[in-house]
UniProtKB/TrEMBL annotation:
Residues 1-43 form the F-box domain. PANTHER family: PARTNER OF PAIRED, ISOFORM B-RELATED (PTHR13318). It comes from the Eukaryota. GO terms for biological process: SCF-dependent proteasomal ubiquitin-dependent protein catabolic process. Gene3D superfamilies: Ribonuclease Inhibitor. InterPro entries: F-box-like_dom_sf, F-box_dom, LRR_dom_sf. GO terms for cellular component: SCF ubiquitin ligase complex. This is F-box domain-containing protein.
Length: 892
């Protein structure tokens, strides 16, 4: 291996992780430089500290034989949500020493921080091939002259991305701006921009046929929006869309292969017949337009005002060879019911080339809501179809017959059906016909309804199915009276991955009633390990014992104080799974009307939130031939407990071992008597992201989370109240999270309420110390020595202080008060430290003044009146990025 050529080692290094590259670079001299070069090739700066370190390293490397800066091809700067700590001149020096930089992502930094009078002559702009910038919206319309100057300086640019940040007015592009940009950027091939396309073509319409083509451009993705705020209707006062941009693109980009346009939140004016004829004439005057276009994605609020017109009068009329077509007509998050879309016509019109079709937010019939969508022709090229609408019905058998090459089907917001006479008990001759078996590999069902017969038919006919997603699906069938089971027989299907979202079941028996919804699912597979003899000897009374159980899954609802229901699915623990198994094995001895609320199945905390498994309603068994992996969609990715509930954090972590992300916005986050630290070390949870918002918790709860969840990396605390006991000396409420090493921390309004064990009095705390045990400015040796020199009488000096924060009330408007958290200056921090060192004598002599007697400005500047109440200390092991301090909500 050591004798491998440099080029081969470089290719190997590209495919390794950062840790592996470091290890290889230290292996031997022959490997050092190829793996070092790979480490330097793509640099991502996460924090200001890393930016300073990188600048210093590059400056140092100028004096050695190995110029690390020559290896840097890609650089991404931080997403700062706080004032830039690195002086601009440092960035100037950084870019000056990166002559081979090819890809630059400025994160959330304003491009004007790096492109100034000093840096405009730097050679780096001439070498860039990819540029990604974020433009901050403004309260008023502003000229984009500086932006165009910056972009046009990057003469070798091939890929340009412009994204918007915040709300307000966005940058406006005209036809003239596009022409000038392409005059300077001859190699530009991809444009992805969130900008506003100027609608005024009055002065340049006649010049468009003479525009200079930009032959290099093959990909164009435009999200056109002029103004954006919280109100969609107010946005429409500013946002408009002109289809003549497609007329311009047809001439400007003759080699375009992918075109994505988003023109939502727009005010549309209906065109009269004369305007339509004039536009059709313009569209069709360029027969060579979009000759190479393969992908078209069009999202617009009112599709049939412009979208339908563009599809038929431009792309179909010019015989554009579309392979991938995606149309979204969602209007204000609802289906566009202005006119039905004709799927069959679209497929017929582009049948020779169309491979994938996605339609979202449409109706498919005029008046009859019960009509079933069926295709009339064969479409042998189509491999991927997505139909997502409200109330749509699709004939599955017809779809499989007409689309014989289909590999992926995604269906949502409707009813999937088969012909009533269609069953798996077809004639033996039909079963043997090769064309009857379909090669579908991926099935995604979302917010729709199906029957058990349909799933059985699906399994029988699509035996190549490998990936299946069931998310928010209602399944109708019948329950076996003897076993209490609704069987979903898919025993012809061997899956690689099954994704389970929200599953509920209902029976066709009117006696059962509409409220008897089954929420319990058993996922199983035929056991390959059991031999045929054992299967034949299975006790017929207990059929659920004769298969291999993957797991029991429970779908439940949580109602918040607004009356809104949140629905989740969780996998039951091994202990909890024993309860339904025993119940259904002894079903004959159980009373049919009995309601079971079992504490081992749904723990105490979940019971309080009214999650009950109604075993007397029965269960559904989703039985496959084989499953390699079964995933619970909402449990693994995110667990949100909703509002107006209490939550026991240890029960959640014990019974839900999979969540990586937990969000809580309820009443109180509590804890039962917790085990010892040693026990917690053996029960580590994989939680990585925690968000606490508008709730109350205790200091011991956060300490428990730190002990139990050492993988926690991102944390958000806002509108949080922490309760605990105040220490007599130095008078602080310690929230110890020393085992937590965060990448990011977002903190907003965090209040503390303390009780003194000596006096029993409650105190409201306004001062917050945010420290960490690890001081990144010190080496490990210095850090350890500093710890050994701690003055026990002043523990405040034993840790690295990040911020002192102060929360106070203010009145932005006369009728409503708000709260804000600010960072105290170094001078104010000095006062706190001096006060704390003599806390006992100060508390005896200081006359406490109530903060409520001061105005908002006075309270902000009279923070010393809160010293008597002590302070809250939220102590972490380490915080990698500078914490983000949230600003108060905009309530005007």
């Amino acid at each position: 291996m050591a004798e491998l050529p440099y080029e081969i080692l470089s290719q190997i290094a590209v495919n390794l992780s950062t840790t592996d590259k470091c290890s290889c670079a230290l292996t031997c001299k022959a490997w050092r430089y190829p793996f070092q070069e790979a480490l330097w090739r793509n640099i991502q700066i996460d924090t200001c500290q890393r930016a300073k370190e990188l600048i210093e390293m590059i400056k140092t490397s100028q004096n050695v034989s190995t110029l690390h800066c020559l290896w840097v091809h890609s650089l991404r700067t931080p997403n700062f949500s706080y004032p830039l700590e690195v002086p601009e001149i440092h960035f100037f020096g950084l870019f000056k020493h990166l002559p081979n930089l090819k890809r630059l992502d400025l994160g959330s930094n304003d491009y004007r921080n790096v492109y100034t009078e000093i840096t405009r002559s730097d050679a780096v702009w001439k070498s860039l091939e990819s540029l990604k910038i974020h433009l901050r919206a403004t309260k008023d319309k502003q000229s984009a002259k500086d932006l165009f100057e910056f972009i046009n300086t990057c003469s070798m640019l091939q890929k340009l991305e412009i994204h918007r940040v915040e709300q307000g007015f966005h940058t406006e592009f005209s036809v003239v701006d596009f022409d000038k940009m392409h005059q300077n950027l001859q190699k530009l091939s991809s444009i992805d921009a969130e900008i506003y396309l100027n609608i005024d073509f009055s002065s340049i319409l006649d010049t468009i046929p003479n525009t200079t083509p930009a032959f290099a451009v093959t990909t164009l993705d435009i999200y056109s929006i002029a103004y954006e705020c919280h109100s969609i209707y107010y946005n429409r006062d500013w946002n408009k869309w002109n289809p003549l941009w497609l007329y311009y693109f047809g001439y400007k980009y003759p080699n375009l292969r992918s075109l994505k346009l988003n023109a939502t939140q727009v005010r549309t004016d209906n065109m009269n017949s004369g305007q339509k004829l004039a536009m059709i004439s313009l569209f069709q005057s360029n027969p060579n337009a979009f000759r190479h276009l393969e992908t078209f994605n069009f999202t617009i609020d009112e599709y049939f005002v412009f979208g339908d017109f563009v599809l038929w009068e431009l792309f179909y009329a010019l015989k554009v060879p579309l392979k991938h077509l995606e149309l979204d007509g969602t209007h204000c998050d609802e289906v566009d019911r202005s006119y039905p879309i004709d799927i069959d016509r679209i497929l017929r019109s582009f049948s020779e080339t169309l491979e994938s079709l996605s339609l979202t937010g449409f109706i498919y019939s005029d008046n009859d809501e019960n009509s079933i969508l069926e295709l009339s022709s064969y479409y042998p090229v189509l491999t991927n179809i997505c139909i997502n609408s409200d109330g749509s019905s699709l004939n599955l058998g017809n779809l499989l017959d007409r689309c014989v090459a289909l590999k992926q089907l995604k269906f949502g917001a409707g009813y999937l059906s088969i012909d009533p006479e269609t069953t798996t008990e077809e004639s033996a001759q039909q079963k043997q016909e090769q064309h009857y078996q379909h090669g579908l590999q991926i099935l995604i069902l979302h917010e729709c309804a199906v029957t058990t017969e349909l799933l059985n038919y699906f399994s029988f006919r699509c035996r190549s199915l490998e990936y299946m997603t069931l998310d928010n699906v209602f399944i109708e069938g019948s329950i076996c009276e003897k076993t209490g089971c609704m069987l979903l027989d898919m025993t012809h299907t061997s899956l690689k991955t099954l994704n389970i979202g929200l599953l509920q079941y209902g029976t066709s028996d009117e006696v059962t009633g509409p409220n008897h919804t089954i929420d319990l699912t058993l996922v199983s597979q035929l056991s390959d390990e059991k031999n045929e003899t054992e299967k034949k000897e299975m006790d017929s009374k207990w059929p659920i014992i004769g298969i291999n159980h993957i797991g029991w899954f429970h779908t439940y609802s949580i109602w918040n104080y607004c009356g809104r229901a949140y629905i989740y699915t969780m996998k039951l623990t091994e202990k909890g799974s024993n309860t339904p198994l025993e119940y259904y094995q002894n079903l004959r001895s159980n009373r049919i009307s009995q309601t079971v609320k079992d504490a081992s199945l749904c723990n105490e905390n979940i019971s309080k939130m009214e999650r009950y498994c109604r075993l007397d309603y029965g269960y559904a068994e989703l039985r496959f031939k084989k499953i390699k992996t079964a995933l619970v969609k909402y449990e693994k990715e995110y667990f949100d407990c909703g509002n107006n509930v209490d939550l026991l954090i240890n029960d959640l972590l014990d019974n839900c071992p999979a969540p990586k992300r937990v969000g809580f916005s309820g009443r109180t986050l509590r804890i039962k008597p917790s085990p010892t630290t040693e026990d917690l070390k053996l029960q580590q949870h994989g939680l990585q992201i925690l968000s606490l918002y508008r709730c109350t918790t205790f200091a011991k709860v956060l300490n428990y989370i730190s002990l139990r969840c050492e993988r926690l990396r991102d944390m958000t605390l806002d509108n949080l109240c922490v309760l605990g006991f105040r220490c007599k000396n130095p008078g602080d409420l310690l929230i110890g999270m020393p085992y937590t090493f965060l990448n990011t921390l977002g903190i907003g309004i965090v209040e503390y309420s303390t009780s003194s064990k000596q006096t029993g009095r409650d105190y409201a705390v306004s001062l917050i110390l945010l420290p960490q045990l690890n001081d990144p400015r010190l080496s490990d040796e210095k850090n350890e020595r500093k710890k050994t020199e701690i003055d026990l009488r002043s523990p405040l000096l034993a840790i690295h202080h990040i911020y002192w924060l102060y929360t106070y009330e203010y009145e932005p408007v006369v009728w409503r008060a708000g709260q804000e958290t600010i960072v105290l200056s170094e001078e104010k921090v000095d006062v706190i430290l001096k006060y704390d060192q003599s806390f006992q004598s100060n508390t005896a002599s200081l006359t406490f003044k109530d903060d409520s007697s001061y105005s908002g400005y006075e309270r902000e500047n009279n923070w010393t009146h809160g010293l008597y109440n002590g302070y809250g200390e939220l102590r972490f092991g380490n915080i990698k990025a500078v914490p983000v301090i949230f600003l108060p909500e905009d309530i005007e």
